[in-house]
């Protein structure tokens, strides 16, 4: 199921992905959610023709560390696109806005200044139910959408 906001896609109309290399940088906070996002992204990449050996997973402790993790991975120039995967839930941190803003700004900086596109797949939800709904639940899987963006940007 696709989300209400994302245009529907035809897997056969995505740019050629065979031979492209993708990195998934995954935050371990709210692991159940980030694992579902990671699985959704990986499934789409493979459906689109990416070889599983060309998808590499990297793990960081929390969403804040996605900035450094993605910087190291993207600067290696070994990948055609990087997907930053995290889950911030408002109820669990007083610093929600600060961390969310920092991660968004950090990933934006990497995109503005680096050569490798870094896709933003960080859920910022009010509660765990919203996160479940968007990571394979009733609103689809944002990991899938991030993988589509990664494929498109890898061909930019
Ligand atoms: C500390 C913290 C809290 C309270 N909540 C979350 C969260 O909901 N999602 C997330 O990805 N990370 C959280 N963190 C951890 C921070 O991202 C970071 O790992 C720590 O502040 C250490 O830098």
Could you please describe the fold and organization of this structure?
The chain is an alpha/beta fold and 156 residues long. It has one domain: Lumazine/riboflavin synthase (Rossmann fold, 3-Layer(aba) Sandwich). The chain has five helices and six strands. The strands form two sheets. It has a four-stranded parallel β-sheet, with helices on both faces. The chain has a two-stranded antiparallel ribbon with strand order 5-6. A hairpin with a 2-residue loop joins strand 5 and strand 6 (140-141). Helix 1 packs across helix 5 (142-154) and helix 2 (66-75) packs parallel to helix 3. It is globular and about 40 Å long. Bound molecules: ligand DLZ. Residues 27, 29-30, 61-65, 86-89, 92-93, 99 line the site of ligand DLZ.
Keywords:
alpha/beta; Rossmann fold; four-stranded parallel sheet; 5 helices; binds ligand DLZ
The low-pLDDT segments are none
What is the total tally of β strands? 6
CATH top level label: Alpha Beta
CATH topology: Rossmann fold
Number of domains: 1
Count of DSSP H/I helices: 5
Proportion in helices: 40-55%
Give the overall pLDDT as a whole number. 93
**Main beta sheet strand tally, sense and closure:** 4 strands, parallel
Task: List the secondary-structure elements in sequence, H or E.
Answer: EHEHEHEHEEH
Through-space gap between termini: 26 Å
Structural class, by secondary structure, is alpha/beta
Strand order of the largest sheet: 2-1-3-4
Question: C-alpha Rg, in Å?
Answer: 14 Å
Bound molecules: ligand DLZ
- Large-scale geometry: globular
CATH architecture: 3-Layer(aba) Sandwich
The H-level CATH homologous superfamily, spelled out, is Lumazine/riboflavin synthase
Oligomer: single chain
């Amino acid at each position: 199921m696709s989300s209400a906001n994302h245009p529907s896609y035809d897997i056969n109309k995505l740019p050629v992905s065979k031979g492209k290399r993708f990195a998934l940088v995954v935050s371990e906070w709210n692991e159940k959610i980030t694992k579902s996002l990671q699985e959704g992204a990986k499934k789409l990449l493979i459906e689109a023709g990416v070889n599983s050996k060309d998808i590499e997973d990297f793990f960081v402790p929390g969403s804040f560390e996605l900035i450094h993790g993605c910087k190291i991975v993207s600067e290696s120039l070994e990948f055609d696109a990087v997907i930053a995967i995290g889950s911030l839930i408002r109820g669990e941190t007083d610093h929600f806005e600060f961390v969310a803003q920092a991660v968004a700004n950090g990933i934006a900086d990497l995109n503005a200044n680096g050569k490798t596109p870094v896709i933003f797949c960080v859920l910022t939800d009010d509660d765990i139910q919203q996160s479940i709904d968007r990571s394979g639940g009733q609103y689809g899987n944002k990991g899938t959408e991030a993988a589509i963006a990664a494929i498109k940007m890898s061909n930019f």
